[in-house]
Amino acid sequence: MPITPRLVYVTASSQEEARNLAQAILDKHLAACVTIVPGVESHYWWQGKLHKAAELQLVIKSSAEQFDALAEVVRWHHSYKCPEIIAVAPAEMSPEYRAWWESEVQTDKPA
Fold first, then answer.
1. Each residue of 43-84: pLDDT tens digit?
2. How far apart are CA 49 and CA 18, in angstroms?
3. Within a domain: residue 62?
4. Which of 9, 20, 25, 47 gets the highest tally of CB atoms within 10 A of its CB?
């Protein structure tokens, strides 16, 4: 069954947290791949104050169909009260990569 591909962006506070999130997501087959990008510096407003933090960026190859379940796993395993969970639709991708992505992100895979 075809899926609706989504790239989901999540930041993490540490390498350990990023790896734990990736493992939890992949264990439940909610993504085909999780890429962890180190060295991200985030500047943001939180509770009326400007903050700066060293973070890691997770780029999660998932689907619209799995987004709610993936977001729940992220919220459950994340240290932040309000973790970044943003999904975007890829405009284009190669047919071979899409076939692999679809084969790995299926709602009927065992959790």
1. 999 999 999 999 999 999 999 999 999 999 999 999 999 999
2. 25
3. yes
4. 25
Q: Is residue 73 part of a domain?
A: yes
- The arrangement of strands across the sheet holding 33-46 comes to 33-46, 49-63, 5-12, 86-88
- Provide the 8-state DSSP code for 39: E
Q: Which residues contact 62 (CB under 8 A, 6 or more apart)?
A: 5, 6, 7, 8, 25, 30, 31, 32, 70, 87, 105
CATH number of the domain at 13, please.
3.30.70.120
pTM score of the predicted model: 0.92
For the chain, what is the domain count? 1
pLDDT digits (tens, 9 = 90+) for 19-44: 999 999 999 999 999 999 999 999 99
Q: In a 3-state reduction of DSSP, which class is residue 15?
A: helix
Mapping DSSP to helix (H, G, I), strand (E, B) and coil, where does residue 43 land? strand
Domain that holds residue 66: 5-94
Q: Say if 105 falls within a structural domain.
A: no
Which residue carries 């997770």 as its tokens? 58
